[in-house]
Structure prediction request, 1199 residues.
Amino acid sequence: MQVNENETFVPTIVAFCCNWCSYAGADLSGTNRLQYPSNIKIIRVPCSCRVNPMFILRAFQRGADGVILCGCHPGDCHYTTGNYYARRRMTLLFSMLDYLGIERGRTRVEWVSAAEGQKFAETMKSFAAEIAALGPNRRLEDLRCRK
Amino acid sequence: MKIAYYPGCTLKNRARELDRTARESAALLGIELEEIPVWQCCGGAYTSAKDEIATKLSSVRALAAGRQIGDGRVATVCSACYNVLKQTNHEFAVNPDFDFKVNNYLKGDPEYHGEGEVVHLLELLRDEVGFEELARRVTKPLKGKRIAAYYGCLLLRPSSALAFDDPENPKIMEDFIRALGAEPVLYPMRNECCGGYLTLSDRETAKRRSTAVKESAREMGADFMITACPLCLYNLTKNTDDPIPVRYFTEVLADALGLGGE
Amino acid sequence: MNHDFKDRIVRMSGAAVEKCMRCGKCSATCPNYGEMEYHPHQFVYMVERGEVERLMASPSIYACLTCFACVERCPRGVEPAKVIEAVRLEVIRQKGQNYLKPDDIPATLDDDLPQQALVTALRKFAK
Amino acid sequence: MQKIGVFVCHCGTNIAATVDVKAVAEALGREPSVAVSTDYPYMCSESGQNLIKDAIREHALDGVVICSCSPRMHENTFRKAAAQAGLNPYMVEIANIREQCSWIHKDKEEATEKAIILGRAAIAKVLLNAPLTAGESPVTKRALVIGGGIAGIQTALDIAEAGFPVDIVEKEPTIGGKMAQLDKTFPTLDCAACILTPKMVDCAQNENIRILSFSEVEAVSGFVGNFTVKIRRKARYVDETKCTGCGLCTEKCPVKKVPNEFNLGMDQRRAVYIPFAQAVPKVARIDPDWCNMLKNGKCGLCSKICTVGAIDYKQQDTILEEQYGAIVAATGYEPIKVDRYDEYAYTQSKDVITSLEFERLTNAAGPTSGTLLRPSDGRHPHTIVFIQCVGSRCTPEKGKTYCSKICCMYTAKHAMLTREKYPDTDVYVFYIDVRTPGKNFDEFYRRAAEEYGVHYIKGAVGKVAPRADGTLDVQGSDLLMNEQLHIRADLVVLAAAIEPSKTARPLATMLTASMDTNDFFTEAHPKLRPVESPTAGIFLSGACQGPKDIPETVSQASACAAKVIGLLAKDKLTGNPCVAHSDEWMCNGCSNCASVCPYGAITYEDRDFRMPDRTTKTRRVAIVNPAVCQGCGACTVACPSGAMDLYGFSNSQIMAEVDAICK
Prediction:
């Protein structure tokens, strides 16, 4: 979370993107000069199934306000089935977030192909807007970690 | 065994023979058809429109009442009742909205969610009695008779809901005919429509349809035909000029079991 | 094109007219084809095109036997008979549009006619 | 303390216009452990690369971060440069400040700030990088082709021509497949046997090809370059090495009423038989379901008359174990069973047949010696109706959802040949669409209609009704006439949909190759890698990948062979070092990782562990085969004890990135 001088809230957002589809889709939105908010930072992973729900909790703990996971469309996974695993794991994580009292809207799973630069930018814009509307994540942030 | 029985309106009137022979034959074979105490007419035709709920309530009430008798299944003899009851029951399985709306209508009555099951007497003969056992119980086998089974549409279609037999090449009635010692006649029109629904509004069209069915049976050498549907029987006998006799399958069954008298 | 009618027909019938691949198997299978002005495949196609009013004005809606042979054999699961039924209901649900009127019935009766014929005809052709 | 070098690229103005590259280099230079931080107009240029190499040598850097374009562009460039300077190439990380920063933001301050954060995340990650070396594995220079139809034959011949040994495993007693059953082939009308059997003989004579007929793959283990395959050689009760294929036994065998599967049951064979005259290998087989000797020990006639003593009633199945570098699936197709579409009366009339049965009825080696006769009464049919799309293009509930692709063309062929040979025959084709994409295909179909007078009717058939006089009443619709037709036919031919062989699904499981919902093998990329399975070392040939006609099958088979040859030509395979690895001290052997691994890369071994109390404990632990692992990381998340991790994308590296971004 960052709060700048005039006190408008700029959320910190982490996007996990799989190397084969969504990261390439993000590159494509760059190549096409499609803008989306700069407070979204992308972490490249080989596959959406590499993303351990722990990473998402870690991000919330360290002050992220929203985490989005992007992978190949179902059926298109470079590793055949990775995105299905990711989908199931995230479904479980969502119910756990409810338990932790974290708003369900702070995490999202999206399928973005390497050809969907437009969709990537649109998705990021809408996600950033939703997180901004939700306000800062105060519930899970571990203030001891804050510098 | 005892099983709930839904006779339907026609079996209480013009098709009394169908009702009587069904009950007597079934009783002889160890199946007690216990009539549901209070029932209304199923309407004879199942309306496929998604927004028609009220016209299906009489079927739902019969199905719900059937739960109190025997193992909860409801037996029918008339093809039309079988078709309407079974399609209604199937709708619960595939359409939650239907379930919700029906139970809103039923407020005050016990809820019903499609847990019942509809069976035709032919299925009971096949699955509960067994055609082999039936063949053993036959005292007056119909030796040498060439019988054409007429399924029509109501027993077979839509097969997704009825799941009665192979809709294009059914065999339950043929097996039944064999069990009675006669020879089944296969003819292509046995699963085509007799024009039943149009009997009142367009008698000539219905006549053309039922005549086509009978011609097909005649061509393949049938001595007589059997059916489970009173309306089919009417069209195939009264609304055609073809003289091949048509009987209810239960009449033939009663004869073969020695209940006929003569 | 009247989308209002089309949407109602699609909703009422639950039939997926857009799944039709124009093979004509419904019309190939229809036992009452010869009595119809518009045939089963045309019902499906014309509903998809939104030409419902022409169908509503046609006597073909009273010619369907509801024998479901088309529904059974359609390779695309389109259910033409349900489309025809929906178009017919769209007509007879309008005031005064009963195709079969109770007053007409006594003339058609005979001693052998089963009750079933009466109830089904009323259900099919009157409200 | 590690020493990291940071290099910020301007990319001309691509980055520098929106990101203050100097400020980025300066800010990142203040990060602990950064020894050098600098910027340059084009890092990917030779001088840019030299700048990096010099810095690595001068500062003895342990890791390098390049802030530049996407790693998908130049990661390899910079890794090579690092390697040339003596740094392990996997100690390089890229911060993507072009596609994911400068190009998508307009505000320079905002973009600069983001570039710094991305740089910090890359530094955090590179600090945890470990030097990696790509593993190497040897390649067994031998290929296995599963399926001996035209696809398998062509692939095997091409591989063998390149000098590599190939085994063909065929489940039937002879190779040849479906093509051997065909009469003529479209669009040139060459006789199928005339062009296929020379290829079958080539297979038999090629020194590099071994045909394992009447055999099935039973188990597959290993990985690309190093497969071990168990092959069951089914007992044929005839010694393949002795039988000369003279056929004497097949003439004398007293059991004559066995339905002949080669002619689709339309005539009979003996209990000992050779499938057809040009079978390869030309070796008899005894059918144990029919042979009196094998059933009840009474007969033995074939053994008495065999001059070379090849009959062996005691023969048993044997298992052959072989090593292969590459495996080709060429399992082909089968026509579907058409019983469920009984409105066409296939089960109700002998004169309703499938197209493959029609092929046999017109084939000179078929049950009627090539004269077209009705199966019911052996009379010439005078009216023939062909029905298209039987079971194709349906909803999933009603049949196959795809177009079977070959039916339009073979039906045009059947119709044309019928009209040519029997001009007094009326031929009708009911079609939904006529699909003829292919060289000379549409011309062929037009010839059928224009020159041969085949009646093409746009519409479907609703019902086929067998009549008492032996004819068939075909009730169909003519959509262009808007009419319902009744045609009195003598013969009805159904163009049944085709589906993958039933053997394909269990084989795919053994190969860990993926399949689609229709049980066709999935290709690694539908456009760019059409003959490879996503599983390395598994290749696809012919209709097992999707419906195909012969020309397409053969070209795909040769393409497949080229890919196999490319693999076998290598002495060693270099793997991707970013693979999973398991900490055996933490692993509890639960098998979760193996169950999610799409490649079968994880196996289990019992290991002895020396415990603190000086006892030795044996535990089952996971072992990742780095040559098979593709590095997806599914196992790392499935592992409940945290033993499984991924090189290059380790848990600690990703968490370090998360921390750096969220700071």
Q: What stands out?
A: Chain D has a mean pLDDT of 95. Chain D touches chain A through 46 residues (CB under 8 Å).
